[in-house]
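COMPLEX REQUEST
Ligand: iron/sulfur cluster
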Amino acid sequence: MILIAKIVSIDCNLKCDYCFYHRWNQNSNRLMSCGTLETLIKEGCDYSPICAQFIWHGGEPLLAGLKFFEKIIEFQNKYRKNGQNIVNKIQTNGTLINEEWAKFFHSNQFGVGISLDGPKNLHNTFRKYPDSDGSFDATWQGIQILRQNGIIPGIIAVINSANVIFPQEMFEFFIDSELKNLVFNPAMIKDDISGLPTGIVAKPTDYGNFINRIFDLWLKKDDPKIEIRQIKSVVHALIGGKYRSCRFKSECQKYPTIECNGDIFSCDGDEQNKNIRFGNIRQGLNHIFSSEIYKEYRRKIQRLRISCLDCQWYKICRGGCTRDYCSRSQELPKNYFCEGMKEVYQHISDSLKYYKILPL
Ligand code: SF4
Ligand code: SF4
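STATUS: Structure written out below.
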């Protein structure tokens, strides 16, 4: 179980065009209270006695301030069990990182994920400050400060209608910058009225072509240090390996999001289920995870994939990310990226056969 904590709720210093949060007020100084934080950490440590995993998220989690993060460490030291491993990750836009933050992350072994959509012109297309200025320079500076302090961050790039046609430029930019731990998630923002993806979202086959091109470039580079989450997941699924990111698991219930008031919701990425509230952290995780509403959510995730069960790629794909499902009024919701992802599964499978990693 990985606990995703939205410590400042949806507050953020940026206003990216594809962020579904910016429909609401993102500037309201919300912060998880000390009491809620302590309960969250105690519950996380009690529930996963071998390895407790926390992702510190927002909005922009660095808005919580360094003192808040020092409290995280204090409570984790208080509730850590004998021999228990605690993993901390933070997902940030990187613009607020300074020497103090970098030193803190390094000395407390935080995994740092930065949102960066490619080189400056592509990143700045949609990732902007509220006054419409691009955020690339500040994010890039944050990455350099991390590097100087011995941290090489992972990168989450959001693939959208602007950068999807530049796979080679994207790949070369990241690899030339020695950023080799990469995730290429598709943007998904839906029109309020039609419920369908807006023009910012990449077309399904464009996204499929993008991932396939990235796969070919990765293969050609032949550098074992390059790790691309989508490609690693698909390759592992095809050859019977263990690694799968959540998008290929159909287990969204295992990624609960804890709001700054302690309310627990289904995965934050799962926009269409954002109203499903499982309860509050004060009720205890054991109580929440055995509740009927939680079990019903798990069944709902499975029901959403009913039309996938006949698909030849189901064992690899498991229906993809719940957030990507949408429908025209009367239809059952379907995974918007299905068509493109089928091309990805076919292409990677053909390549593994060509190299005799999979039987013909
Ligand atoms: S490729 Fe499409 S139909 Fe097949 S499992 Fe994935 S989402 Fe479902
Ligand atoms: S909704 Fe998407 S991002 Fe969230 S757990 Fe499910 S697959 Fe992962």
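REMARKS: The mean pLDDT is 94. The CA atoms of residues 256 and 266 lie 5 Å apart.
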